[in-house]
Amino acid sequence: MLHFLKSLFFADASALDSDVNSMKKFLIVGLGNIGDEYANTRHNIGFRILNAFAKQEDLTFQTHKLGDVSVYKFKGRSFILLKPSTYMNLSGKAVKYWMTKENIPLENVLVLTDDLNLSFGQIRIKTKGSDGGHNGLKDIQNTLQTTNYNRLRFGISDAFNKGNQVDYVLGEWSPEEEGTLPERLNLAAEAIKSFGLAGINTTMNNFNGK
After folding, report:
1. Which residues, at least 6 apart from 73, have a Cβ–Cβ distance to it below 8 Å?
2. 210 band by pLDDT with thresholds 50, 70 and 90
3. Which pLDDT tens digit goes with each residue over 156-176?
4. Could you give the residue ranges of the DSSP H alpha helices within 86-199?
5. pLDDT at position 22, please?
6. CATH code assigned to 25-207
7. Could you tell me the CA-to-CA distances from 143 to 33, 37, 51, 78, 99 in Å, in that order?
8. C-alpha torsion 180→183→184→185, nearest 10
9. Which range (23-32, 154-163, 183-192) has the least confidence?
10. One of 3, 43, 64, 134 is an active-site residue; which one?
11. How far is CA 77 from CA 58, 180, 190, in A?
12. Structural domain boundaries of the chain?
C-alpha cells in the first residue's frame, strides 16, 4: 500500500511539474509569407517583429517542421518564436503543430498580425475577436476552432485607393515608414516580453494605443 501511495504521489507530482512547465512556455507566432519577394511587405509585419526581437536578444532562427523557430529564455520563461513556413493561408497548421509539440496552452499563445484599421505603427492587443478578413487569422480560427486567442495587431493604416487593398497589403513600406519602423518594432518586442512576464491584461493596459 505504501509503495502504491508513493508511486501515486510521484506520478501526480510529475504531472504537476509538467503543468507548471507548460505555463512558463509561450508561443509567439509572427504571421507572414516566406520568400524574399514578401520580406518587406506590410503583410509580413509579424515576421518583421520577430526578426527585430531576435536582433535585440542576439537570437537566430533555425528551420524546423512548418516554420523557422528561435527560443528566448528570460526570467524562468521560454518564448518560442515561430515564423510559419506554410504561407499565410495555412498559418493555423503551424500554430496547432507547435502548440501540441511544446504542450503550450492556448492562453499562452500570442499571434502577431497586420491591421488595416489601425494607424501606422499603432499596437492593439486583444484576447479574442473576428478574423477581420485576414486569411492568416481566419485559418488559425478554423484550425483551433475558436476566436478566443491572443493577438497583437500592428497598424499598417488604410492609405490606399478603393480596389487597391491587396496591392497595398502586399506592397512594401514607404521610405518614411521604414524610417519609423525600428522604434515601433522595438515597442512590439517589449509587448511580447510583457505578455510572458506580466500577463495579457497588464500588457493590454500598458501597450494598447501606443
Report:
1. 79
2. confident
3. 998 888 888 999 999 999 999
4. 91-102, 135-144, 165-169, 175-198
5. 58
6. 3.40.50.1470
7. 18, 27, 26, 24, 12
8. 110
9. 154-163
10. 43
11. 17, 30, 15
12. 25-207
| Separation between Cα atoms, residue 110 and residue 188, nearest integer Å | 12
How many Å apart are CA 114 and CA 123, to the nearest integer?
10
Q: Which three cell numbers stand for residue 97?
A: 503543430
Q: Is the dihedral of CA 9, 106, 196, 200 positive or negative?
A: negative
Averaged pLDDT score across all residues of the chain: 90
CA dist 50 and 71 (Å) reads 11
User: C-alpha angle with apex 94: 125 to 49, nearest 5 degrees?
Assistant: 40
Q: Is 43 designated active site?
A: yes
In whole angstroms, give the CA distance from residue 99 to residue 187.
25
Q: What is the pTM of this model?
A: 0.88
For range 81-97, the mean pLDDT = 97
pLDDT at 15 over 60: no
Pairing between β-strand 123-126 and β-strand 150-155 as defined by DSSP bridges: antiparallel
CB half-sphere exposure, 60, CA atoms < 13 A: 2
Q: Which of 15-24, 102-111, 124-133 holds the top average pLDDT?
A: 102-111
